[in-house]
Amino acid sequence: MSDLRKPPATVAEGASMGDEWIVVPREAIRETLTDLKEQGYASYVFMTCVDHLATPLVEPPQERFELVYQLRNMETGHELRVRVYLPESDPRAPSVHDIYRPANWDERETYDMFGILFEGHPRLTRILMPEDWLGHPLRRDFPVGGEPVEFSEDYEAWQTAPPEA
User: Whose CA is closest to 109, among 83, 85, 138, 84?
Assistant: First the structure.
């Protein structure tokens, strides 16, 4: 894996189409990103989410949701993906907005579109959808054909506002 010193919390590593990646548990994401930043991965390229519901893969993913952080070492030009899996029953992760400032916006977008809660985020609010929008449109089970949907009170309360800090 290039000249990268593998972070201690790494549970898997590999390459896909020439791009290197590591997997860490969500509890270790802050420690891992801090370590990588100290190793020279000072450029935060983006963070996104993948909803693996019904992903047609030979080996199903560990959990429904996957956060993907793309980092770049500006001195070597090396890029690295840091992957974190989140269960459908508990879609939350620690915020890293204070480690990489641009993560603030990516976390808000990921909350808005996928419903992932970022603990410790200073202002986790919708950024693309109206405040009164129900649900998260990039989840694979979000209705897209105009079909009627009935949401429970629990769903509405959880989906429309992040928990109180």
Answer: 138
